[in-house]
Amino acid sequence: MVNHLQDTTSLHNGVKMPWFGIGVFKVEEGPELVNAVKTAIKHGYRSIDTAAIYENEEGVGQAVQEVLKETGITREELFITSKVWNADLGYESTIAAFETSLRKLGLDYLDLYLIHWPVEGKYKEAWRALETLYNEGKVKAIGVSNFQVHHLEELIKDAKVKPMVNQVEYHPRLTQKELQAFCQKHGIQFGAWSPLMQGQLLDNQELQEIADKYKKSIAQVILRWDLQNGVVTIPKSTKSNRIVENANVFDFELSIEDMKRIDGLNQNIRVGPDPDNFDF
Question: Oxidoreductase: is it a keyword of this entry (predicted)?
Answer without folding.
Answer: yes
